[in-house]
Amino acid sequence: MTDRNTATLLHLMGFLGLVFPFGNVVGPLLLWFFKKEDSPLIDREGKKAINFQITMSIALIVSTLLIFLVVGLFLILFILILEVVAIITAAIRTSRGEEYNYPFSFPFLQ
């Protein structure tokens, strides 16, 4: 697997959260941890993917707490749509060798 393919996979692993609780964070984190030394591309893209997934997880938790105020439901929907679009965009751009920075992503890992 090439470095670019691994970097693309790091972004796509965000979809694991749809199947496993916090899989969107744990999956990319594990792959990044074991492959980050292989390439600066994998290190950089892994950090971006993990930072975005942590940010989205926190946003979803807060939105869930606000669900009793109708706004929480709309926030959850917005966050999920944003997450899907951003993951797909990041994967496509990375597979083409282009730079992509996630919107609304807090830099936990630098």
Q: What do the pLDDT scores average to?
A: 94
Task: Please outline the major beta sheet.
Answer: none
- Helix proportion range: 55-70%
Helical stretch tally: 4
Strand content: under 5%
End-to-end CA span: 25 Å
Q: Give the overall shape.
A: elongated
Order of helices and strands: HHHH
Give a short summary of the structure.
It contains four helices and no strands. It is mostly helical and about 110 residues long.
Give the SSE map.
Blueprint: H1 3-12, H2 23-35, H3 40-65, H4 71-95
Would you mind describing this structure in some detail?
With 110 residues, this protein is mostly helical. The protein contains 4 helices and no strands. The protein has helices spanning 3-12, 23-35, 40-65, 71-95. Helix 3 runs antiparallel to helix 4. It starts with a helix and ends in a 15-residue tail after the last helix.
Name the descriptors.
mainly alpha, elongated, 110 residues
